[in-house]
Write a structure and sequence with these properties.
Length: 389
Amino acid sequence: MATLADAPHRQDSSAFPSSPSTLPAASPVAIAARNMRFVFLAALACAFVVTHIPRLAVGTSDSPIDKLIHASTYGVLAALLLLARWWRPVWPALAVLAAWAALDEITQAIPGLGRSADLDDWLADVTGMVIAAAFFVAAAPVGTGAARLLCQRRRIAGDTLLCKFTAWFHLATVGVLGFAAGAPLGVLLDSFFVRKGPQPWQYGLIGGVLGAGIGMHALWEYGVRSRLRRLGETRPCIACGSAMEPQAESCPVCSRARAQTDWAPVAPLQGSEELVACLMPILLSLAGIVVVSASAIVLITVLRLRSEWVMRGDTWYRMLPPDARVLGDIALVALFGAWGLRRCRVRIARSVDRCGERCLGCGYDLHATTPEVHAGTCHECGGGFVRVH
């Protein structure tokens, strides 16, 4: 009988299927995608119902938050749609959701609702989608070898969590508790610092949403890391997440052959190297925000009295509601932040992909290790390494 060490080494492309639709319906990855699609459709239906409540007014002329709520809502919907993995490319999904947002706005003009279609609201929706898509792309798998393998392990860990009802229940519970903790904080900040909002619940809503998001993200990170430790022991299929017998050479569900590197341990990258890799992208992101903002101010100040188009643009911008201008500032910071995050991950991935040449834990030179070995341990510190070709 063949052993794990004798299993054929597969190319990177075979380890990472393009879509859950290519996998059997009973696989954990396909089940997780179906669950996420159900959540997306439920959230989409709830958003459509809320936007068609007759004569619903959010915010006031003194404290408008309508555009921020539009961007937040469609940002969440865009994130759920992208995680549902109906489309592999990002932009087709955004185009479909933008068309739905336009339909949502048009139907609000139905007589009797007391609402109206607003192009500014649709632009706020699209802005939220673009921000969500930017961070989705920034968090996409990176690297070509070990780094991409680690990303796939993390994805499998997340999918096996999303297959379970208890995981959704825990996320919902923490979201509710985070909202309950963040809402009073938002009201307190409004009372002590803003002191002009006639409806404190608006700031409570913002604080609650932030509290729910932070709590759910913290729980998700804890759950994924715990699941990764367990999967390192059980070693399921790296492609579909299905359980495999220790002596099995291929997955019983998707038939992918087991590779020696699938769940082989990899020494963690030293924190100092991560800091060095991230330092330059962070500085460039901050510099980009400052340069773009300062350049826009200088150009508008210099050309406003000399160019009719610039004067019209500046006048139009000043006539925008305060929440629309704030949303523009948030979008600028978010896009540069997403670019910086992507560059940080790419630079870290380059170091991780070289783990078969140099130990990530101690820096020991691994070139002398037999080339046929695809997974092994460092002779100096005992840290694991893989070679994915």
